[in-house]
Each structure stands twice: as C-alpha cells, then as structure tokens.
Design goal:
The protein is mainly alpha-helical. It has three domains: about 90 residues, Multidrug-efflux Transporter Regulator, Chain: A, Domain 2; about 70 residues, Alpha Horseshoe (Serine Threonine Protein Phosphatase 5, Tetratricopeptide repeat); about 70 residues, Alpha Horseshoe (Serine Threonine Protein Phosphatase 5, Tetratricopeptide repeat), CATH 1.25.40.10. Strands 4-3-5 form a three-stranded antiparallel β-sheet. Strands 1-2 form a two-stranded antiparallel ribbon. Helix 10 packs antiparallel against helix 11. It is globular and about 55 Å long. The two termini are about 40 Å apart.
Length: about 300
C-alpha cells in the first residue's frame, strides 16, 4: 500500500508552515496528488518535489527557475521512485536529473546547488513520523507545529503581505468573506505582484456576481504569474459565463497543457468542447478527468456525459 502524508505530516517532515504548503498547492507550484475522502494527501514522490522546491528556493533560485526544475523532475523521476529506490536527485539550478547513487554526476556548470538521495530522504521521513506530534495551536485551522517559528517562514521572506494573504484565506475558510476581501486588498496594496491574492480576490468577486471585476483580477494575477493554473482555470469558467465560449476553451486548453493533473480543467473543457461539437476531443478530456478522479460525485457525471457522447 502506498504511504500517504497529510499537510501536517509534510510540515513536520520539512519544518515548513502548513500555510505555506497550502499556498504552494493553491498556486499550482507543488502539492499533493492524491485526493481521498475529500482531502488531499502527499505520496513519497510528492515529498521529493517538496524537498526539491524547498532546497532550490533556499539556494536563492527564482520561483520561475524552481518551476522549471520541478517540471524537469517529473521527467527525470522514474515511476518506481519508491523510498527504497537507489536514486540521487541533483540540480545545478538550470537542469535536474535523477541518477544512480554509484554514478558520478557533474552538472554542466560544475556547481551543484541541490542534491540528495531517496533512501536518505525516506530515512528522515520515517524518523520524523516516529516522533510524538508537536502540540498545535487550535486557533489556526489545522494548526502549525509550535516548534516552527512563523517569523522564519521562507515564503515571501515572511512579509506582511503574505501574512495578510494567509489571514484572508483563513477568513474565507471560516465564511467571513468581508474580512477575506479586506485582507486580500491589504496584501495587494503592500505587494501588488502577489498573484495568489489577486486570484482569491477574483474568486470572491466571482461568487458575488461582479464578473467584470473578477475578470480584471484574474487577468492581473496572470500578468504577474502566467503559469498559475487556478487563475487561468477560473478565468476560463468566467469567460463561459460571459458567453465568450471560444476564449473560455482557449484558456482551459492552456491549463490542461501546462497543468495536466488539474482534473477539473479537463472536466470543464470536455463539457465546453462537447457544446461546440468537438466530440472526440471532449471524450478525451473527460476520460482524462476520470483517470485523475474516480470517486467523486463529478466522476459519476463525467461517465454519464461520456455515455451520452457515445450514443
């Protein structure tokens, strides 16, 4: 059976705040790939990606370069990347490779900025998971281990803007939408390039029916972070609501191309393609959705649509 890890587990393993892990997941940077019982879980391969992201950011690489390295990791990491696999992950900041422990690795630049082997990572994971869980505070959602100092978080250098953003997320989760909107606006006033805050603000505007303002928020988020799948996905859905179906399809195609594991994008794109007569392509995207999501209510609907397309 595949070992699965919660956000709390991963926060303990890598000494990260769980709020930062949620931020990474929310922005499509790096996150869990298994959804079970309505919650997301990390596999061991996901842990490898988290470690790569953390180490490269600590080495001073830009977010864009780290994204490129994570994309390369998916190609370099074999399917049998289990805790026992004798593999070493190395990067020079431009490229990333997975090699056997007994094979020397020398990046083209001659400078290794990150390297670790999977058995050693597995040992660290097992050691941390065997320790008693740190007491957590009850006022911060799922809680943050007390041993992690919020002032030391690497995310946005612990900026006030990022803290306002996280507070907005917490307010939104609790249903206090007015406070959430206020916090997102505060975050953007302090840091206009904080794309995730613009996306969340767009979501609030979308929910309240202010579609034009939501569209502006999503487009500004993508100006600052073109690779963010959530903003593009929501923009695609909004464009469909505005009757701009072709533009909506174009945006959802980009999401599926750049974030192929974004299940909901495949689902919505499949429906839109069916609507305009692209039956074959619609079927492929709905089938891809079912590969990614086999248990939810929406998977049942996807099967119904596939059946209707085949009739």
């Amino acid at each position: 059976m595949t070992e699965l890890y919660s956000i709390k587990d991963v926060a303990r393993i890598f000494a990260l705040q769980d709020s930062r892990l949620r931020y990474w997941m929310q922005t499509g940077f790096v996150g869990p790939t298994v959804r079970k019982g309505g919650r997301f879980y990390y596999t061991f391969s996901d842990l490898v990606s988290v470690k790569v992201a953390k180490d490269l950011l600590a080495a001073g690489l830009s977010l864009q370069k780290v994204r490129k390295n994570l994309a390369s990791l998916k190609l370099a990491l074999p399917e049998d990347a289990t805790p026992a696999a004798r593999l070493r992950i190395c990067s020079d900041g431009e490229t990333i490779v997975a090699v056997k422990d007994d094979i020397a690795f020398e990046p083209a630049t001659g400078q290794v900025v990150m390297a670790f082997n999977l058995p050693a990572l597995a040992g660290h994971v097992a050691e941390i998971m065997a320790l008693p869980r740190a007491r957590v505070t009850e006022t911060e959602g799922e809680g943050v281990p007390e041993s992690i100092d919020p002032d030391r978080t690497e995310a946005n250098d612990g900026s006030i803007a990022y803290r306002r953003f996280i507070d907005g997320c917490a307010a939104e989760d609790s249903g206090d939408l007015d406070r959430a909107r206020h916090r997102y606006l505060e975050a953007l006033e302090l840091q206009p390039s904080l794309a995730a805050a613009r996306t969340n603000l767009g979501n609030l505007l979308y929910r309240t029916g202010d579609l034009e303002a939501a569209r502006v928020a999503y487009e500004l988020a993508l100006d600052h972070e073109p690779g963010q799948p959530e903003a593009r996905y929501n923009l695609g859905n909004l464009l469909e609501d505005l009757g701009e179906t072709e533009l909506a399809i174009a945006e959802l195609r980009r999401v599926c191309a750049t974030a192929p594991e974004f299940a909901d994008a495949h689902y919505n794109l499949g429906l839109l393609l069916a609507k305009v007569g692209g039956t074959g392509q619609a079927r492929r995207h709905l089938e891809r959705y079912l590969e990614l999501d086999t248990q939810s209510e929406w998977s049942g609907r996807a099967r119904e649509y596939l059946g209707a397309l085949a009739a």
